[in-house]
Amino acid sequence: MKLKLLTATALILGLSTFATAKGNVYSPDHGIICDKKSGFCVDSEGISMAFTEEYLGKKAADKFRKMTEGVHMDMSSYTLSNGLSCDSKKRICKKSKWDDKADKHWTNILFGK
C-alpha cells in the first residue's frame, strides 16, 4: 500500500513538473506567443516589448531591455526556451532551428494560414 502511494505521488510530482516546464511557452492571444522562461513575447513582426510588458509584466520587459541594451539583435528571428525557432521575415516557426518543416500549430498561431 505504501509503495503504491509513493509511486502515485512520484508520478503526480513528475507530471506537475513536466506541465510547468511545458507551460513556459504559450499563446495568450492569436498572433502572440510568450515565453516565461526567456522573458519575452513575440508577434508576427518579431520580439515585442509592448506584448512582453502586457503579458509578462513591466519587470520582465525592463529585464529584457536591460539584457539587450547596446546589443545589435535581429528581433525578427528568435528561439524560445522549448526549442521552437521562428523567423518573422520568412513567416515560419519550426520545432527547432535545424528542422526543415514548419511547425503547423505555432506557425498558424503566430502568422495565420
UniProtKB/TrEMBL annotation:
User: Which key words tag this protein in UniProt?
Assistant: Signal
Signal among the record's keywords?
yes
Q: Name one Pfam family in it.
A: YcgJ
- InterPro entries xref list: Uncharacterised_YcgJ (IPR008617)
Q: Where is the signal peptide?
A: 1-21
The protein's name is Uncharacterized protein
Taxonomy of the source species: Bacteria, Pseudomonadati, Campylobacterota, Epsilonproteobacteria, Campylobacterales
